[in-house]
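Supplementary Note 3. Input sequence used for the single-chain structure prediction.
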Amino acid sequence: MSTRKVRDLSVSVTSFYMKFVGYWLATNYVEKQRRNIAMSYTLFTTLFSMSNEMRALYFSWGDMNDSIYVMCNIVTVVLVTVKLLDLFIYIEELHDLINYANKNFWHSNYDAYEQSMIDNCKRTCIIFVCTFIFFAQGTAFSFVITPVLANHAKNDSERILPFNMWLELPLNVTPYFEIMFVVQILFSLHIGVCYYCFDNLLCVINLHTAVQFRILQHRFANICNDNEKCNEASGKPSCTTNKYMKLRDYIQQHQSLIEFCKRLEDVFSSIVLGQVLLFSLLICLDGYLLLMEGAPRSRRIIFAFHISGCMCQLLMFTYSCDCLIRDSMDVSNAAYESAWFMLPMDKYGKMLRRDLTLVAMRSQIPCCLTANGFFVVSLETYTNILSTSVSYFTLLRDNTNNT
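The predicted structure, written as discrete structure tokens, is reproduced below.
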């Protein structure tokens, strides 16, 4: 079967936004220069946004509602900063992962059944990626649209910006207002792209790695019960030999996937830890700002998008990690369920049984992503984070009511 690349909407969208922030592959000198410019702009945007939000927290300190609003923005920018700095350190390893996936996952040398699994994986990736982008960009656009509607039919002295700025400049006067407004729009949209592009990449790679384990399950399960015509009973072991040669290839694919998961863990484990630690706080703050009494309708819309995006992000992040765990362990069952008992007791039949046993034993140790080695991320992590968020929200609300 020929190997040719096929278009995948989730991969195309993810690569576009990764190029936009300067973290995708570059194949020539011009693309490398563009990548360096985009990466420099991304880092500058993040540092500028972080410094502005820290100043905003300083000037809003003492006002509970405004402080929580600013803290929610700070946590979002901190998450972006953690992702950018970690992947900047592991940029070469990240590109190796993308190259491996591009070469071994996103192609079409599959049979009909395997291709159907790939197609199902693509549909799942598209749903997750597009849904998360919708809510993340909806949050960014809400920050932009809110001051546009608020400034309608107002005097110049009453105009407001998407984010407060404490500068010794007349920011409500033309042209300072227009310049700062455009700058804040560009920066907020760019922060939004940085917020979701890396999570989309991790989700797509996790789900495609999981489907590769499912393909291996299919191959292991059918290695001993194909329809090859052979006559082992008459002393012709060519059929068993061919099966064993296939098994060797499948074991090498299994080893490559296990090694790929280890490299994925090395690159993303710090990001996973940062997200798990901050997600509970972020969802708590979003819930408070969404349900806060007397909150403006525009702010409720912003954080309705924000909390929906967080829930979607957390679900696709933990679900993809859970798929990786389950599908890597199910290889053991597939090896056992193959018709190994029908093989002859010749040299290659015994070797094939032994190697299938080793595959089953190795598959008992799941491939997984951890929070920097502290704990394994799975769907159980999703429920734990939500439970912690509710606890934080209850404490925050009670403390607010008492004061």
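The first helix runs from residue 9 to 21. The two ends are 70 Å apart (CA to CA).
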